[in-house]
User: Fold these one by one.
Assistant:
Number 1:
Amino acid sequence: MKVSQFFDNTLLNKYNTSGPRYTSYPTALEFHESFSQSDFIQAIENSHNRDLSLYVHIPFCHTLCYYCGCNKVVTRHRGKADTYLEFLAEEIASQAPLFHEYTVKQLHWGGGTPSFLTHQQITTLVTLLKEKFNFADDLEMSIEIDPREIEMDLAEHLFSLGFNRLSLGVQDLDLKVQEAINRVQSTEFIGDFIAHAKAVGFKSINIDLIYGLPHQTLTNFHKTLVKAHEWDVDRISLFSYAHLPSRFAAQRKLRDEWLPNTQEKFALMKLAIETLCELGYDFIGMDHFAKPKDELSVAQRNGELHRNFQGYTTRGSCDLLGLGVSSISAIGDSFSQNIKELKAYYQAITDKKHAQEKGLSLSQDDIIRGDVIRELMCNLFLDKRVISDRYGINFNEYFKDDLPLLDTFIADNLVENTQDTIQVSPKARLLIRIICMSFDAYMNKHINQQRFSRVI
């Protein structure tokens, strides 16, 4: 892979606007409160799928990271998790019977910080899930870890319960950056924990990194990238920091003058991609890197990569059930989301035994466009004949009002649109979100609003 082809400054500056990440189509902005629990049940009954991915949201964090835009509850009181787990257990008990015909192929805990939970709390929740759902023998179990508040024996405990994948939030290893974002952590401990987890038996370890944070420089961020390689992690998720202080109050603690400007941020991204590719990682999608033998890399080479609310995955064909506050589900031809605020979540579980707040039943047009966007996002290529045959349409006729929106990209040699295919140039990989917006029927009503992060 020639990494230099991704970085045409003129083109990247021209198209560096805001756009959806397309973990779903339509995006969550289109969810509405008229989507009911009966609609959710109907979606289960109508779904042709009987493979299930479970997502469990644990909202608690010990401290507030100033960059974070996730749904979380910051507290030092672990006892609050006991209350949460009681209500979560009620939700699980009411939802699980709806999926008695399903087999769970994937389980992921996110947050917040799932490692906020004690060993006993983790055991209790895993035991409950395994009692209520049918789990596959080759289950993929993953959990997100905050390395600041754990002990070394957490690795043994998680592995004994069946977890086989770990994801550690690292973000940056430079002390000045860490102090600015209120996330000081031990580089030595992170390295020791990763090595220990591998020795225990974990086969896949991911770390999250962020570029565009306060005080980041090419020199100090390069050290972070090299250290990640020394740790021999299997995957690296590289995210662009989206500075939206009007939406996330904690970000107001980060002064504008501390942040890299547009050109400096672009240089950080370029450095990261070049460095990680030189170190032997494959560049997956927009923002993920994986070792060549990792299943994400294999799926991309085979044109079988998927994308859902958890990002790039090889299990995108599963229906997805979200459990816990703010979690999102994708069942059959529907999306739905739980209440985001903790007290309201508790009240809903008490009153209704579920916490669904809003959702969307997909129209046939939503399904077709979602398929097109997903193919382009994952594989940078679309066979129009496959879409035409799958949905009984003439692709070029169906999208006759949308295809002209590709003309500007075609003129810049970023996209090739033939009678039968759409091929995205490798140098347009970083702009794939903007290209996909050409097929987004909802985009016009959001185009002048700051609802999405910038591409770079």
Note: The CA atoms of residues 50 and 102 lie 5 Å apart.
Number 2:
Amino acid sequence: MSSAPTTPVVPPSPDVDRQRPLAALLDATSADDLSTQLDATRDLLARAFSRVRQPLSGVSPTEAAALVAAVDLDAPLAGTAEVLEEVQRVYLDHAVWFHHPHYQAHLNCPVALPAVIGDVIAVAVNSSLDTWDQSGTATHMERHLLAWTARRIGLPPSADGIFTTGGTQSNLQALLLARGEALAGGADLADLRVVASVNAHFSSRKAAMVLGLGEDAVVHTAVDAHGRLDVDDLDRVLTRLRAEGRTVMAVVATAGTTDLGCIDPLASVARACRRHGVWFHVDAAYGGGLVTSRRRRHLLTGIERADSVTVDFHKTFFQPVACSAVLVADRRTLRHVTHHAAYLNPASDVVDEIPNQVDKSLQTTRRFDALKLWTTLRALGPDRIGELLDTVVDLAARVRQDLVGDPDFRVVPDGDLSTVLFRFVESDVADDVLDVVNETARARLYATGLGAVARTRYDGRTWLKLTLLNPATTLADVQQVLDLVRGHARAALAQVDGEVA
């Protein structure tokens, strides 16, 4: 392997019988086994977390593939201890640890401890949230959380929604509903268009493909100097498309762009959508957590006028994946995903007021992902979540400010959330060369396992990105990672200069 594992192999807990096989199924007869095995698993995780010294091991894709391929899945192990040892060796030793303060790459958060408790319970009981007769009160708990989220957003009493696996699925369902409304209004499928800024998430294009529209059906608007959707250009685009005989089925505004962390002018976009009679969707997968912030809730002003909203709880609510939701202002629009199956959710259940969540979902079987959000809210409360989010947004603002004065880096000074876009620079070095240097520096940092930053294309060039979602990360932690990037970039530039010479 390229580096030492982050969690050295340790002896199993003494209370785990090495020769005792795992119980096949969880039921009343295996309750004692459950207790023993959960204790052993708890100890394994506690040791792993306590021994993490860097965010990743530096294992290469080739090394990782060989490690996994060596496992014979046709030959079960002898007992719990052997299984846990293998999980440690194959997975935990080379996991990417989002809770480590030097992990600063993607929209991955450390998880709230109460959420872990909720998820363990959800996994063990294994409720399926598609129908009432498979879930019981879990259905009402999910509905209660959806109503709470809708109220926090400011949607009307007619609002409703459903939990999904993530922002991509939530955006897909929102656009499916918008398509359904447009077709119900007499539009032709071939004429449907979706309008979003050039900085919107790619899931809108994916959704257009899935919905039979094709990627070309997504029309992009310009952005302003801060990377936010240009509302004047939106007006021009909507007017032009109507003149061409097209039907705009939805405008997608973004509350937290992936690269810049920008929030589109939601109130102005909402007014434009009303003028043109267009469905208004807000992709708040990243910025939705601001509904818990007492200091920054105003950044979402206008979101309450949306027809649909995406919120990813597994980003800025500090929940384990997967935990997302799509909310709609008018619950009647959810009819566009409803299908009644006689064996599952017959139409007579509607008459009898049986609360089947599958009536509102693209999925059939769904796990009880809402429970981890429930346990988090009940243990911490929304204000505490908002404070944690404010902490990382404050940190990002401070990092941007510091980088403005750093001669080795250029920085994009704008951003409403917790991302920081920066680029190593050197005077008299061509941009094409600096593109290679920045990409090389990122890859070399990752290979050491000492830190992780992301990369993207911005303004036609390669930029590096910090995504700060760990409230425990300090300014000193960020500076350490930036110094590592600086060193790798200088080494890469020296190598390029040597090759040219």
Note: The longest helix spans residues 475-500.
